Amino acid sequence: MSTLVTGIAELVTHDPSLGTLSDAALVVDDGRVAWVGSASAAPAADERIDVGGRAVIPGFVDSHAHLVFAGDRAAEFEARMSGVAYDGGGIASTVAATRAASDDDLRARLRGLVAEMRAQGTTTVEVKSGYGLTVDDEARALRLAAEVTPETTFLGAHVVPAEYAERRDAYVDLVCGPMLTACAPHARWADVFCEPGSAHAFDGDEARAVLTAGRAAGLDLRVHANQLTAGPGVRLAVELGAASADHCTHLTDADVDALAGGTTVATLLPGVEFSTRSPYPDARRLLDAGVTVALATDCNPGSCFTSSMAFCLALAVHEMAMTPAEALWSATAGGAAALRRTDVGYLGVGARADLAVVDAPSYRHLAYRPGVPLVRALELGLG
User: Fold this and answer.
1) The overall pTM is greater than 0.85
2) Measured between alpha carbons, how far is 339 from 292 in angstroms, rounded to an integer?
3) DSSP track, 277-326
4) What confidence score (pLDDT) does residue 366 get?
5) CATH entry, 2-59+346-377, from 3.40.50.2300, 2.30.40.10, 3.10.310.30, 3.30.450.40
6) Could you report the per-residue pLDDT of 258-296, keeping only the tens digit for each?
7) How far apart are CA 141 and CA 152, in angstroms?
8) According to CATH, where is 2.30.40.10 located in the chain?
9) Domain 60-338: which CATH class?
């Protein structure tokens, strides 16, 4: 059944041949965009949805999220607001709670967060493992994640668990061997928290071993890079052809040059800086260098427990010198690039019909009215 969506005051397509249209309409057929243009020229369709003079944008593409977990770390957040620095150590408490949780409990939290995201305009989300850190618990996390998204990421190399604190090499061997073997069938991506500045995360050599093993197992690559300090993560990501280097908070000139000269997307996570009282990434520096930039939530129970891409977009405009147009592109088409997807993040003919409606006449209100729940995914067929 085809659906005509009309009454669109402003349609952001992110299709270079279309741009942003006023007084627009589009037709959806079999889950894909079949026609885009002026409302006055719209063809007939089986059903019609009038959005009443609102803006329509591509659904947000959240390319970095940690949604399979149990427990609560609100006290840790409160401590950070009192000046305690973030170093990744709190992940251990989430690991303990996640290992103890049932499948049904984890599934309920996961599905609840995905529904929360969709209610705020997110239509594509990547979900990582990383809070089990045993062979069985990591495989379980990925099986659950695959129930809600095809964008599943093996993050056994999130931190070194307490039982391996004195045997780091043994844990890296486990991640690269039996854990990867168990997890690869349920994952599209392999990731590693490459952060020599944290005693809990992985240095450059350890990260290279994990990523190389993941690639050999048929997984594409992503990297947690340069969050706490400048380090080897970004250049390692570019060297190995990773789709995305995520965080990119502390960058040298060589890091920026590497990103500008490669195909790796710089995924910025400003909600983390908001939640940890840390310096924000310099998005303007990256954009001016020609780097492809994505925005994502990093929704997780410790360093950034927000599911709102609109909030992260507003932070990017307010704190990172991005224009509203740049921030929206990064939260949609940029996220698609970070996932190497060509079917989402835009609304041209042939794209997936992932539409989000803004309860305002323009997308600019997403940054203009921060914290207001203006955007939602449009449920086609429900009117």
Assistant:
1) yes
2) 12
3) T-PPP-HHHHHHTT--EEE---B-SSS-----HHHHHHHHHHHS---HHH
4) 98
5) 2.30.40.10
6) 999 999 999 999 999 999 999 999 999 999 999 999 999
7) 10
8) 2-59+346-377
9) alpha beta
